[in-house]
Amino acid sequence: MMLSVAILAGGLATRLRPITETIPKALVDVAGVPFIHRQLAYLQKQGVKRAVLCTGYLGEMIESVVGDGSAFDIEVVYSPDGPTLLGTGGAIMQALPLLGDSFFLLYGDSYLPIDFSAVQNAFFESGKVGLMTVLDNGDRWDKSNVLFQDGRLIEYNKKSPRPDMRYIDYGLAVLRYSAFEQRKTGEIFDLADLYHKLSVENDLAGYEVHERFYEIGSHSGLSEAEAYFRERKLS
């Protein structure tokens, strides 16, 4: 059975302004369809049965549009940040009671051509607390921040990347509940700090993918994503 998926959909999306001045990034129109609809339809095709939307900025608008997920044949539940945005790590920490012992983690602005079941199998086979999908990036889409060699993720370091880091976080991870045991509910923190800690403790597996990701975090990314969906006539 496929694990539940936590979707981080609470950011302010400042790079997409003025589009996101009145709507959250998850509801941005991408080739005629709100982006969250594309994500949920894709997850359903992957066999995912349950998604937890971690919301923040204008999160009530997402809930009013998506509802309980029945239109996508996925159970959708919500974990709002509340009055204070908690950061990517804090948002997941708050959602843990809804997620179970292990779960997928997906960014709310990313569309990833990848086989979720293969990633899930690799995670359980690794025996580690977490798994990060990685792409040989060479600084093409963002600053490379992962040292990945001979099938092993040696270090992830978003804050201080080194020249020998050729890979990048692809945008899909699997984590165990226990990865957060030293954190507190309501704490504001970035997942990047957690990933770095797990990597240097040799508790973060790596799974290499070879097809690029698409994202709507910027105007240029949005244009590329729209072209991708139009060319493939994906609904």
Number of contiguous helices? 6
- For the largest sheet, list the strands in their spatial order: 5-4-1-6-11-8-12
Q: Could you say how many structural domains there are in total?
A: 1
Largest sheet: 7 strands, mixed
Strand segment count:
13
| N-to-C series of helices and strands | EEEHEHEHEEHEEEEHEEH
Q: Let me know the CATH homologous superfamily.
A: Spore Coat Polysaccharide Biosynthesis Protein SpsA, Chain A
How would you sum up the global shape? globular
CATH topology: Spore Coat Polysaccharide Biosynthesis Protein SpsA, Chain A
Mean pLDDT over all positions: 91
- Note the gap between the termini: 25 Å
In helices, the fraction of residues equals: 25-40%
How is this structure best described in words?
This protein has 235 residues and is of the alpha/beta class. The chain has a single domain (5-232), classed as Spore Coat Polysaccharide Biosynthesis Protein SpsA, Chain A (Alpha-Beta Complex), CATH 3.90.550. Helices cover 27% and strands 27% of the residues. The strands form four sheets. A seven-stranded mixed beta sheet has the order 5-4-1-6-11-8-12, with helices on both faces. A two-stranded antiparallel sheet has the order 2-3. Strands 7-13 form a two-stranded antiparallel ribbon. It starts with a strand and ends with a helix. The model has no long low-confidence stretch (mean pLDDT 91).
